[in-house]
Amino acid sequence: MTLSMRIMIAAAVLLLFAAGAFFLYRQRPDLFRAGTEMEKKYPRYYKLKFDPGIVRVEVLQRHLRSHRSLMIQYYIGSDNIYMAGITKNQVVIKITERNDAFDLALEKLLHQLSKADILEVENDSSLFKEFERAARYLYLRILLPVLGELQSPVKELIIVPDGYLCYLPFEILLTKEYNLQQIDYALLPYLIKEYRISYDYSASLIIENPELKYKNWKSYIGFAPTYSNSSNGSNSKLRAFNPVELYANQDEIEACKDIWKGISITGKKATEKSFRELASQVSILHLATHTFLNDEEPQKSCFVFTADSQSAEDGFLYTYELYNMTILAKLAILSGCETGIGNIKKGEGIISLARAFKYAGCHNLIMSLWKVNDQTTKEIMISFNKFLKKGMEKDLALQQAKILYLKGSRNLHPAFWSS
User: 156 has which bridge partners?
Assistant: First the structure.
């Protein structure tokens, strides 16, 4: 690569991030003032969130897994959508207009994915057509502009989303026109049928993946709390939160424990205290809990455990508490039933939880994006762990688990399997 090409690439990437920073400063100068105060009070947290460092393109390219890997970083501005695609030997910068059609398509798609009554509307032909149009439109707007410029094909996508895109599972976008005459979600040409897909929340975090030694560590520990009224007992916070019982989470944890010959902590034993005591040295950490994402106060996003009247812990493990923990797992599976999304939010809650786990030492996460059916989660997570046990890479194992679900399950709307 010539010097002039390197300069052009660096300038284009810096333009992408500068545009994002300038837009944020113009729209929310209060955040910059708040950031200064946070830097003084919590310098380690501030450095992770606001000062991740500038990653040179060449360094990032060296950390991509293969010549068939593509990282795409997004910034959603008020008027434009900025995309930076990077492979081992190419950089693609694209800017496309953000218009009402984009916002409407994204809103419709996320609304369908988070519908609590999706079983009642899964056979609605108008919603099926709406899904087809929105999923195809978003593929054409936010993926094809980069994919169409590549000099060689790729099979692995690393998505670094922004804003509302943090809640969009890119695997449901449709790569082809496919006008079915009948409702059949399984037959749609989803992106996941062609690509292995993973996500990160910062280009700098992609390269911060230290090699750790796991000798003599437990292979697997899974936590599946209970949320019955009797278990909540005198814990006023849990009673106020009123989490519903998850009827498949214990089966999920027990099945995965058997695959890995690991440890399951279920029911009344799955307390915040037990998590703190056992989570520090394990290869695979699995939480099948309720999760509350708070976009307004991201540091208060949390996992909900079984109430424990004998402990000083309140049963809520908050994002800010994770920053004081050491969790050096190879993989954390956070198959929580999310209860806090509701209307479309900014994505800050989920980004903060991901950052917190990475800061604690765990650099590979699988996290559900919205309130999910725990029976479906159980099926996919068991298949995923079986594929992982066979030696598959994490993104490939998850891809194959979801494809397997599409082939043999009853509820096939992406709301059931794409989270």
Answer: 69, 196
Coil, strand or helix: which one is 304?
strand
For tokens 């207009």, the residue is: 97
What is the per-residue pLDDT across 79-136, written as a single tens digit (0 to 9) for each?
Answer: 999 999 999 999 999 999 999 999 999 999 988 887 656 666 677 888 889 999 999 9
Q: For residue 196, give the H/E element and its range.
A: strand 196-199
Q: What is the pLDDT of residues 260-281, one digit of tens each?
A: 999 999 999 999 999 999 988 7
Task: Please say whether the beta carbons of 305 and 223 come within 8 A.
Answer: yes
Q: Which residue has the tokens 């814990």?
A: 235
Name the DSSP letter for residue 171: G
Note the pLDDT tens digit of each residue in 155-205: 999 999 888 888 889 999 999 988 777 888 888 999 999 999 998 877 766
* Strands of the sheet with 365-367, listed across from one edge: 263-267, 218-225, 282-287, 331-334, 365-367
Burial of 24 (0-12, 13-18, 19+ CB in 10 A): middle
Buried b (16+ CB within 10 A) or exposed e, 351-388: bbbbbbbbbbebbbbbbbbbbbbbbbbbbbbbbbbbbb
